[in-house]
Design brief:
Layout (H helix, E strand, L loop, with lengths): L7 H15 L6 H19 L4 H25 L8 H34 L19 E2 L9 E2 L1
Antiparallel strand pairs: 1-2
Helix pairs in contact: 1-2, 1-4, 2-3, 3-4
Length: about 150
């Protein structure tokens, strides 16, 4: 069974719309700054179709915003602040769209990871924290054909 191809533009557009609607009533500015920054990286990934780094950064940003969205919801979800009738409907809509945005993010991460692999990314993500593996290992020219590296 083949995984359907989802366009990166559609992912960015849906998350942008849900983020705008989620920011309408109750979430702090840090929620919008974090999500819109990640969506800007998504626009970068759209603009540079062959960039592996742009897609990887978008994927990592989406993964981080899953955690930060959960923290925002846990801290800022009001108990009785929107008891008035006129604010209750806007709050319900905004909260519903923000929660829907959070629920769609893992699915979007899956499709963005598929795009990362299509663009030539590795199955395992390597951050290359060491500058060089050869700085710790030496090779002997005479023994290198049979033994290889010695560490």
């Amino acid at each position: 069974m083949e995984i359907p191809a989802i366009n990166l533009k559609a992912i960015v557009l849906v998350h942008w719309l849900l983020t705008v609607w989620g920011c309408m009533a109750w979430l702090p500015p840090s929620f919008s700054w974090g999500n819109f920054t990640v969506l800007a990286i998504g626009v970068w990934a759209i603009a540079q179709r062959d960039s592996i780094d742009a897609v990887l950064m978008f994927l990592m940003g989406m993964a981080v915003t899953i955690l930060t969205d959960i923290i925002h919801f846990g801290i800022y979800y009001p108990l009785n602040d929107f008891a008035l009738d006129r604010g209750r409907d806007a709050f319900r809509f905004s909260a519903g769209m923000a929660i829907l945005n959070l629920l769609l993010k893992p699915v979007s991460c899956f499709f963005v990871y598929q795009m990362y692999r299509e663009r030539g990314g590795d199955y395992n993500v390597n951050f290359d924290l060491e500058t060089s593996v050869d700085s710790r290992c030496t090779t002997d020219s005479a023994d290198s054909a049979f033994i290889g590296r010695r560490c």
